[in-house]
């Protein structure tokens, strides 16, 4: 069975000290680490935790938990830093590789660009990563066919520590709109493979899979161009399942991890994918494979066992002596950052504006009908409730239930249910 970060086989806190350290790191996840002051405190004579007897106060000379953890963390960090010959602390470089960059690019001229921070689950989850000197590699979300535009965009993104991968429109259509969103996403969410008529509208499966592999190789080429010895490469999501194999073919010593941000289906569902074996073996080229939950990790190991005939171990999957570690790493947002942002005046003003603008209004339901093939294209009777904004309570609530009724409005590939 796969390992779990909260099981005995992982980094589970086994002592009170380790537990307190983990709790402290979570509480201070978004705070910068002031190494200089902690080194000064950690080097005091007589007490490694900086508790001078003259400043004991009312605690009887017993250091409190926060002081203890500060000193312990400082000592550990400094000890690691002095392993370098120049005795200067440094952060390890982390290359985050995802389908999209955390910024969106809008072209303003031949060689000028406007960059805006993107909003998404992956961006929110990784904002709190402070232990590494990170570089983000991904598609900028815009087609840039000319060399001048590519150079100017790369220069602008470099200021944000981002590195672009330039994909043309045909690759994006086949790789992203086709294979990723038409095949992998529905399958991983237990919706099954698409209907033949829908598959035909986005070309054949083989052409989509070829574009998927080509796009992953393009990502790998950019990673290889910027990779330095000692870097850690962190690949993300179902868009880049082929990437670990491409990277290992370039450099077998490269440290590669792959994390899936969606469910991983059971082996019975995954075996319906025509490219099931090739994708599994590509992911297994990584050194570490991570999932949100233990069940998703278990499904992955089961698929490797039943489809590829490999051996599952408590640490992961073994193939001819090569072990790929598989584990669950529940990932969340940097909650402290959002809590602090809630108190900002501009946020409070925006909340007030939204409450006033949508007071008493009904909320429409929107869903993509083509993903749910069991729903026929006819008027569906659904029970719906009106959601209104309560100015006094400061939130939204279900006001009343209404008769079963619905009007369908069609726009492109979407069914808009106006309730």
TrEMBL record:
InterPro entries: Glyco_trans_20. The keyword Transferase applies. Its EC number is 2.4.1.15. PANTHER family: BCDNA.GH08860, TREHALOSE-6-PHOSPHATE SYNTHASE. One of its GO terms (biological process) is trehalose biosynthetic process. It comes from Vitis vinifera. Keywords: Glycosyltransferase, Transferase. SUPFAM superfamilies: UDP-Glycosyltransferase/glycogen phosphorylase. This is alpha,alpha-trehalose-phosphate synthase (UDP-forming). In the N-terminal section; belongs to the glycosyltransferase 20 family. Residues 32-66 are annotated as: Disordered. The keyword tRNA-binding does not apply. Pfam families: Glyco_transf_20. One of its GO terms (molecular function) is alpha,alpha-trehalose-phosphate synthase (UDP-forming) activity. Residues 38-47 have a biased composition (Basic and acidic residues).
């Amino acid at each position: 069975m796969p390992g779990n970060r909260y099981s005995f086989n992982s980094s589970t806190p086994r002592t009170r000290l380790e537990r307190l350290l983990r709790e402290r790191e979570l509480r201070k996840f978004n705070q910068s680490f002031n190494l200089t002051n902690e080194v000064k405190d950690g080097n005091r004579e007589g007490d490694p935790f900086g508790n001078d007897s003259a400043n004991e106060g009312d605690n009887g000379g017993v250091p409190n938990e926060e002081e203890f953890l500060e000193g312990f963390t400082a000592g550990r960090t400094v000890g690691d830093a002095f392993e370098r010959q120049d005795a200067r602390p440094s952060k390890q470089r982390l290359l985050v590789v995802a389908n999209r960059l955390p910024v969106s690019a809008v072209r303003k001229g031949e060689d000028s660009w406007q960059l805006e921070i993107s909003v998404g689950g992956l961006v929110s989850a990784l904002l709190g990563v402070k232990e590494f000197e990170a570089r983000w590699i991904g598609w900028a979300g815009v087609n840039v066919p000319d060399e001048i535009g590519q150079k100017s965009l790369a220069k602008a993104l470099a200021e944000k520590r981002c590195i672009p991968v330039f994909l043309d429109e045909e690759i994006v259509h086949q790789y992203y709109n086709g294979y990723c969103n038409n095949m992998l996403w529905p399958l991983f969410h237990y919706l099954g493979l698409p209907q033949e008529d829908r598959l035909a509208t986005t070309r054949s499966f083989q052409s989509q899979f070829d574009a998927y592999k080509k796009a992953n190789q393009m990502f790998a080429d950019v990673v290889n161009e910027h990779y330095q010895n000692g870097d850690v490469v962190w690949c993300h999501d179902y868009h880049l399942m082929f990437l670990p194999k491409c990277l290992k073919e370039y450099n077998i010593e490269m440290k590669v991890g792959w994390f899936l941000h969606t469910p991983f289906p059971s082996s019975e569902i995954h075996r319906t994918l025509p490219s099931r074996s090739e994708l599994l073996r590509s992911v297994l080229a990584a050194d570490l494979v991570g999932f949100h939950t233990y069940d998703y990790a278990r499904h992955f190991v089961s698929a490797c066992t039943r489809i590829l005939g490999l051996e599952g171990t408590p640490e992961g999957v073994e193939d001819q002596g090569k072990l790929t570690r598989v584990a669950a790493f529940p990932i969340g947002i940097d909650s402290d950052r959002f809590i602090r942002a809630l108190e900002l005046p501009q946020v409070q003003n925006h909340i007030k504006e939204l409450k006033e603008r949508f007071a008493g209004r009904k909320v429409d339901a929107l869903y993509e009908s083509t993903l749910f093939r069991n729903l026929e294209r006819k008027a569906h009777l659904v029970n719906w409730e009106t959601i209104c904004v309560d100015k006094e309570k400061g939130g939204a609530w279900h006001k009343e239930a209404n008769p079963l009724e619905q009007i369908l409005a069609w726009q492109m590939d979407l069914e808009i249910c106006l309730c």
